[in-house]
Design a protein that fits this description.
It is a single chain. The longest helix is centred in the first third of the chain and has 22 residues. Helix 2 crosses helix 4, helix 3 packs across helix 4 and helix 4 packs across helix 9. 34% of the residues lie in helices and 16% in strands. About 3% of the residues have low confidence. The relative contact order is 0.14. It contains eleven helices and eleven strands. Strands 4, 5, 6, 7, 8 and 9 form a six-stranded mixed β-sheet that branches. A three-stranded antiparallel β-sheet has the order 1-2-3, with no helix packed on it. A hairpin with an 8-residue loop joins strand 1 and strand 2. By secondary structure, the chain is of the alpha+beta class. It starts with 12 loop residues before the first helix and ends in an 11-residue tail after the last strand.
Amino acid sequence: MFVPPRCPYRGCRLHLDPDPSAFRRHGHYRADCRAHPVPRFRCGACRRTFSRQSFRADYRDHRPDLNARLFLLLASGLGLRQSARNLGLSSRCCELKFRKIARHLRRLNLNLRAELPSGASFQLDELETFEGRRNTRPLSVPVLIERDSRFLVWAESATIRPRGRMTSSRRRAIERDQKRLGKRRDRSRRSVRRTLVRGADLAVALPIVVLETDKKTSYISLAKEVFGGRRLVHHTTSSKLLRDVRNPLFPINHTEASARDLMGRLRRRSWLASKKRRYLDLGLQLFAAYRNYVRRRFNGDSFSAAQMLGFVRRRMSASEMLSWRQDWGRSSIHPLAVRSDSIESGSGVHGTAA
């Protein structure tokens, strides 16, 4: 039976200091998208009413039955327009659903992670893509993974300056962009540092932090600053080596190749490229959630990357990923606290619904 974990109204004293015994049942209602009645409750403190749906990630959604299908389509390399065609939605509806789903998955990815077990190590690399226009608005995307599990710790985009062969037409295009958008700054270093900080949050209990990268000179100084020079072991590999399975950086290279395959926004020659950088970041969060919690680590495995690290007890389905709201941090209902329309006890790091 569902028990409200808190009052959903932020002005109520039971929002931050909940007392489950203060919530009384207040009837139910039926929704076309639910197989069973949705229970309603009344808060004993503020006297306002709410339903179980107030705690769902699809709260106030139109066509919530399509959310999981849209998530899987976008995580399989399709763009927003083709996904909209397949689902019978408008392009605008599909776009808004994508943004809401991706923001939810970013919070879920942060809520579910915990400290890494002993023996864990990191690999870091950067891939290049673009926003809007290839020859004038390039982007760098630092990617950090745990090597053995292939858990994607963090990835985000950062602006970099155009480089390479400069033709007269390209210079004119750059000048037009600068007049319209301002001078393009190189924020790659700052983005790499933020990415390493995400890894440091998971490595606080590790006596030694192993980091493998290529020979880019800025990596070593940033890694020492973030992890501390005394416990950092930094291995470098030349980026000129053949990128096959014998390459020490094969795990991170394989992850980047998978990201380009499953994210149309990252493909080198595609009209699915993001028009704005912030939407590429949302796409990266969607891919990370799929890669970490839904997909098997390898085709021959039966467990996910997060399951291998002990962050969750089993692989999750798309519907479970999009079940309970995650905007209350680790006090949010755990996504494994639900199966279909019934409640099961979750064994994750934050609250359950039962």
